[in-house]
Amino acid sequence: MGNPKNLCKPGKKAEDIRPTIIPSGILVNPLKLRDVRNLLQKHYGDSWKNLAHLRYFHAVLNHLDEDELRLLEEMGVEENDTVEDLCEVQEEGENLRI
User: Fold this and answer.
1) Host domain of residue 37
2) Could you tell me where the DSSP H helices lie in 1-98?
3) What is the tally of structural domains in the chain?
4) Which of 2, 48, 69, 96 has its CA 20 to 30 A from that of 17?
5) Using CA atoms, how far apart are residues 6 and 13, in angstroms rounded to an integer?
């Protein structure tokens, strides 16, 4: 304990490590972003953008709104459509298990 030790395999040096660069961020489906925005508005009201603990969501949703709406229009989805409008109705079967 207290003695320095090498973390590398025998014969390897720390200078030999060449880590791969991982791009930051991920692409998020615009429909999910719309749902998040709608949930924030429903839960906190229209003033959710002014709440300090929701700044992250404001930053994410603020610059993506225009792209989101454009993509939704291309997909033929209206801004006020609900999830129920986008899903097919399934008949309940006798073997339905939850």
Assistant:
1) 26-75
2) 30-44, 55-75, 83-86
3) 1
4) 2
5) 9
